[in-house]
Design a protein that fits this description.
By secondary structure, the protein is mainly alpha-helical. It contains eight helices and five strands, in the order E-H-E-H-E-H-H-H-E-H-H-E-H. It has a three-stranded parallel sheet, sandwiched between helices. Strands 3-4 form a two-stranded parallel sheet. The longest helix has 16 residues.
């Protein structure tokens, strides 16, 4: 114990709820009640928590709704009808998959998927909604564009453990890199 570490400054990131629960049980076994002060979370839950505190900076309200894949697909189907788009080249499901990949840093948008994306994002914002991918995208945007917010979370999470780090995608990696760049305590 060369150094006392405040458990509130520890962040453990997992990629599934099951892994989060398992890690929480293990930490409780090692540390007892102290474990309740450690943030153990999926990357998406962490981003949702960050957004609940900061999303007003980019024009949303704090009480935003997180929509699931089913609701996202329904919205894209509605947009296909409203915009009178042909399903010949891209089905709504294919458009959604392309949009999701784009949000996660894979590929580019053009043509019908770009048109759908623009209307889809506009509708989400009008309805104060975010999809699962937006949890990452909007958190990354806020941490990148608002140095005060980044500094707050860098000070809060000084020690970061990432379970299965090799499985992170580009945007997840960038969020973790931003959070850890001040202290460089990423394991």
């Amino acid at each position: 114990k060369d150094k006392e570490i405040n458990p509130r400054n520890i962040l453990a990131i997992t990629f599934t709820k099951k892994a989060t629960n398992e890690m929480r049980e293990r930490v409780m076994g090692f540390c007892g009640d102290t474990a309740k002060y450690v943030t153990i979370s999926t990357i998406h839950s962490l981003c949702a928590r960050i957004l609940r505190q900061t999303i007003t900076k980019i024009g949303y309200e704090k009480n935003f709704e997180i929509i699931d894949d089913e609701d996202a697909n329904k919205l894209i189907n509605e947009l296909y009808k409203e915009l009178e788009l042909s399903r010949k080249y891209f089905s709504p499901k294919a458009a959604y998959n392309i949009i999701s990949a784009y949000k996660n840093g894979i590929g580019e948008l053009n043509g019908v998927p770009k048109q759908i994306y623009d209307h889809y994002q506009k509708r989400l914002k009008e309805n104060n909604q975010v999809d699962f991918d937006d949890l990452l995208v909007l958190t990354n945007k806020i941490l990148t564009e608002f140095p005060d917010v980044l500094e707050y979370f860098q000070n809060k999470y000084q020690y970061i453990l990432v379970d299965e780090f090799q499985d992170t995608n580009i945007i997840q990696y960038n969020i973790i890199k931003l959070l850890g760049q001040k202290t460089e305590n990423i394991f």
